[in-house]
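quick one, 179 residues, struct below
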Amino acid sequence: MFPFNGNLILFISVFRKCFLYLFCMIIIDTKTGSKHKIAIQLVEDGDYKMLTKKRYFFNWKEEKNQEIYKLTLEGANDILGLVSIERIPKEWRIHIRLLTVSIENKGKNKDYKNIAGNLITHISKIAVREYGELACVSLKSKEKIAQHYIDKYGMNITGLTLSVELPEILNLIKIYDHD
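---
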């Protein structure tokens, strides 16, 4: 089934974004409703001294040999979210090893919303760029939040993991990429 109910122009528009790799992704200030452009980049060696377990819930230094991306406000250095990935080309899949937002962006009283969604979408765009229509992004969720991933990001239960494939990926891009 075609993911956009036969709307080829919409499909091409969304798919083209993946290959042009132009970002206009935003997060929203929960107190004011204002939208802020973000940057998603690879974590640099100097970032690790700021990545404390207290603020980011994991010891990110243990992931240092992995591919890790950070989300910041455009032009700022403060890291608001992180994602560590593993590429699995034989399965046309990128597996999210760890995904987190900073402590002030977790829960009902968070400062900004859409941080995790933007990180998942960014990884999904990489998967489409690498694997085309066979792209898949997976993660192994804690049981408490599995339903949240299913409801909010359209993830499907695939054995012990949750995953998104092309129809869900295109929907994520449509929601989170405001290019």
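Residues 115-131 form the longest helix (17 residues).
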